[in-house]
């Protein structure tokens, strides 16, 4: 067993060990101030320093342009499915691309606040592919187009966000990027608003990041709670109400770690993306070469972050999970709606963890083939 087990949880997910160790060292006394971060006033100078550093590092890491506000919010991505139409659906018409379980939830929630049109829906093929954007049925008057850039449950990812202007649409693109934010660079010129829960690549559950183009702020529906009016949250520097202070602190440590991350001569987000490409390629190659395991997603649409896979002999799934846990390979059970297995390869998962999983899979197949 490795010194520390490899945690393949889909979320809340593994955090970088140096971040956990630093947080442990600072638990009772942050930088000699006599308080732990959980005990601080969010209005005090100490937390103000933590907050400003976190936003500064996030902007540097993800190269977020100045014309975007960055909001540190609560409620999770599930809440954003309501908050986005409350803030942006000014004319009551929303386009949604349904590529998996999470975008289907987004469409259902938005339906409560606006007319929803599905520009594509891949449920008929079990959410295993992504259609060419040229075939999407775009509306002329949509307030925005919603996509999930990475479907955590189904293992489907947009490796390139669509250029809606090239498709003839004037609608801003809204992206639920919960499970692939900070896993690779985004082309912000194509995005109007992006949001994601922190508990995949960034930190503990309880924090949600919203990146919104400033030109889209203002005009929230009258029914939108004040604490969730994006314009107000931006104006107040994410301090209109008490923010999730400890989650922001951990996220800030992750941003610092990511900015310094090195891999194959690269540094920062480029290095993180390069390792994520290598991790995913290693695992998918092992699955495709196997006689026991299979992945059912079209190769071009496969997620780098979440890899669902199945044993061809389903009765071996429980044995695989038990033996994997004993070998220090944790949280490999597939989502309850899909069954099978799932390995999440978020930024904190080192290449060595995927190598250990692949070695275990090969040994398992040898013993149970």
What does this structure look like?
The protein has nine helices and 16 strands. The protein is of the alpha/beta class and 369 residues long. Strands 2-10-9-8-5-3-4 form a seven-stranded mixed β-sheet. Strand 6 and strand 7 (156-157) form a beta hairpin. Helix 2 (45-62) crosses helix 6 (245-260) and helix 3 crosses helix 4 (101-110). The longest helix is centred in the last third of the chain and has 20 residues, at 269-288. The radius of gyration is 21 Å and the shape is globular. The two termini are 23 Å apart.
What labels describe this entry?
369 residues, alpha/beta, Aspartate Aminotransferase, domain 1, Aspartate Aminotransferase, domain 2, 3-stranded antiparallel sheet, 9 helices, 33% helix
């Amino acid at each position: 067993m490795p010194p520390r087990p490899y945690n393949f949880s889909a979320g809340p997910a593994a955090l970088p060990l140096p971040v956990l160790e630093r947080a442990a060292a600072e638990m009772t006394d942050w930088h000699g101030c006599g308080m732990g971060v959980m005990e601080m006033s969010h209005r005090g100078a100490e937390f103000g320093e933590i907050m400003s550093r976190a936003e500064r590092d996030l902007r540097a890491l993800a190269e977020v342009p100045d014309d975007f506000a960055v909001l540190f919010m609560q409620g999770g991505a599930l809440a954003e499915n309501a908050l986005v139409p409350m803030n942006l659906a000014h004319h009551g018409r929303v386009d949604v691309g349904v590529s998996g379980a999470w975008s289907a939830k987004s469409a259902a929630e938005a339906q409560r606040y606006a007319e929803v049109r599905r520009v594509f829906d891949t449920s008929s093929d079990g959410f295993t592919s992504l259609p060419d954007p040229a075939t999407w049925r775009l509306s002329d008057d949509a307030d925005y187009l919603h996509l999930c850039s990475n479907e955590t449950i189904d293992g489907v990812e947009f490796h390139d966000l669509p250029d809606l202007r090239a498709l003839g649409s004037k609608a801003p693109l809204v992206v639920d990027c919960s499970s692939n934010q900070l896993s690779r660079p985004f082309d912000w010129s194509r995005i109007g608003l992006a949001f994601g829960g922190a508990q995949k690549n960034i930190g503990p559950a309880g924090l949600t990041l919203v990146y919104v183009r400033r030109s889209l702020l203002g005009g929230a529906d009258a029914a939108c709670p004040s604490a969730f009016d994006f314009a107000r949250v931006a104006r107040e520097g994410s301090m209109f109400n008490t923010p999730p202070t400890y989650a922001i602190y951990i996220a800030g440590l992750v941003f610092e770690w990511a900015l310094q991350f090195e891999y194959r001569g690269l540094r920062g987000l480029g290095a993180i993306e390069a390792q994520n490409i290598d991790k995913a390629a290693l695992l998918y190659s092992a699955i495709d070469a196997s006689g026991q395991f299979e992945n059912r997603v079209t190769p071009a649409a496969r997620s780098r972050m979440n890899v669902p896979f199945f044993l061809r002999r389903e009765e071996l799934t429980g044995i695989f999970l038990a033996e994997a846990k004993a070998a220090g390979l944790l949280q490999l059970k597939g989502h309850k709606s899909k069954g099978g297995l799932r390995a999440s390869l978020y930024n904190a998962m080192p290449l060595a963890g995927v190598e250990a999983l692949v070695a275990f899979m090969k040994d398992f197949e040898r013993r149970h083939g």
